[in-house]
Amino acid sequence: MAGHHGDVFSLAPPRSMVWTGTLAAAALAWLAGYLSGLTLTPDSRGLALAFGLSALLCLLWVPNASGRIAQLVRMIEALLLFALIGVLGAVLSYLAMLHSSGFADALLHRMDHALGFDWPAMRSYVERRDWLFLAFEKGYLACFWMPLAVFGLLWHAQRIGDVYRYLLAHGLALAATVGVFFFFPARATFAFYLAPGAPLPGNARHYGEIIAGLRDGTLTTLDLTNLGGIITFPSFHAAMAILFVWGAWPARHFRAPMLVVNGLMWLAAVPLGGHYVVDVIAGSAIAAGAIVLAVRLARGAAAAPAAASVPAAPGPVAVGAA
């Protein structure tokens, strides 16, 4: 397989943008975690080292754009980037919860109420219908395999450039979500609506323990293999559902199934994910904004070298006496 040595700042956009943003997020997460007194478990330190070495290899060895094998290497790199972005986003969300104060659940409840939504009634409606609960559960958990589907479809369609454009939008959406979450930390609907001592779903117990540990100072060691999603507002689950559909859109024959599965993921964020309805609305808006920004950034970056290569038009020739 042909290839060449490269540098992240000389790579073709939007790949360079994704790598630059990912490396900046890694530096921020490390510095903020160090200053906050957070450490990693031994296994997590090994995983972080593996991530670092893999990233270094990707940056030093840039495969040629042509050829199916080279494209497959790019897809593997894309999966690595997706995993890195997800882990860094989770760590930064922990830091956001650690350094924020109070909870915004009462505000989010009032916003839902103003829109005419009643979370306990919606949750009860879904729980009483086994078929609906099962469909939502399958849709909600699709986020774990959906990246493979999106990247696989783009690889099959030979749209490798679209993979990095998707990753750019994904990273922008996650960064915006974490940033907003810092100002609106919440414990989510299960903790807000259910009576104390009531049985909680497994995901609610998990992120409830994380939030409590971060706030009371008992959680100081992070396990990168067992990070929990603690972002309530905006819903990144809802954002992912929209991003997955957009990312796989070039695969025409798979648009309908992608819409169905990710539509279920989007809807399930409220009754199964513990989100308020306004979380889903805000997450959808962030996804739309990230898509628009990623497309504009990718087009602008691609147009810049082309514009620079066009020779300037000759200026007027002055005619006059010497």
Which consecutive residue ranges, at least 5 long each, have pLDDT under 50?
1-11, 315-322
The total of beta strands comes to 4
Helix content: 55-70%
Structural class determined from secondary elements: mainly alpha
Shape: globular
In round numbers, the mean pLDDT is 87
- Which sequence of SSEs, written as H and E, runs from N to C? EHEHEHHHHHHHHEHHH
Tally the helices: what do you get? 13
Major pleated sheet: 2 strands, antiparallel
Euclidean distance between termini CA atoms:
62 Å
What fraction strand?
A: under 5%
Radius of gyration: 23 Å
As laid out across the biggest beta sheet, the strand order is: 1-3
What would you say this structure looks like, in words?
This protein is mostly helical. Helices cover 68% and strands 3% of the residues. It has helices at residues 15-35, 42-60, 68-99, 105-114, 119-127, 130-141, 146-156, 160-183, 189-193, 202-216, 236-248, 255-268, 277-309, and strands at residues 3-5, 39-40, 61-63, 221-222. Helix 2 crosses helix 3, helix 3 (68-99) packs across helix 10 (202-216) and helix 8 crosses helix 13. Residues 1-11 and 315-322 have low confidence and may be disordered.
